[in-house]
Amino acid sequence: MENIFFDTNYTSLSDMLIKVFAFLFVSGLILYVIYFALIKIFFRKNKHRKEINLRLVFLWTIFAYLILFDVYIFVLFYRNGIDSFYWTNAKFYLGIMAQLTIYIGLLACFFIKRKSLSKIINEKSIN
């Protein structure tokens, strides 16, 4: 497990794909746990606009996960040492493809969901 989550060296395409899918699976599992924990904390059955509240809780889930992921990135850099990263080497970016995929994907998902939520809120407030 340590090699999957804290190794930044590119060895082969199959290892990189395993790493990306492991990150996606673990990220999905953590998002699922955070989402349902936040639903239990914030969601009340008697509230109006349940759809908006659920979408808002999902945005808070992504935000909380991004904070946890940033802590992970800090630990990754701290453990490997910033000098051990070869920023100009293309193999370095293949080695951290899993982290880049999660980070860029979550940021894109956050802004897409935020835009759709604001669209729903604007449509509901007009009616």
Structural commentary:
The chain is mostly helical and 127 residues long. 80% of the residues lie in helices and 0% in strands. It is built from 5 helices and no strands. The protein has helices at 2-6, 13-42, 50-80, 90-95, 97-126. Helix 2 (13-42) runs parallel beside helix 5 and helix 3 (50-80) runs antiparallel to helix 5.
Short description:
The protein has 127 residues and is mostly helical. It has helices at 2-6, 13-42, 50-80, 90-95, 97-126.
Largest sheet: none
Number of helices in the DSSP assignment = 5
Proportion of strand residues = under 5%
Percent helix, as a range, is over 70%
Structural class: mainly alpha
Uncertain segments: none
What is the subunit arrangement here? single chain
Shape: elongated
The total count of strands amounts to: 0
Which radius of gyration do the C-alpha atoms yield? 18 Å
Order of helices and strands: HHHHH
Distance between the termini: 52 Å
Mean pLDDT: 81
List the helices and strands and how they pair.
Layout: H1 2-6, H2 13-42, H3 50-80, H4 90-95, H5 97-126
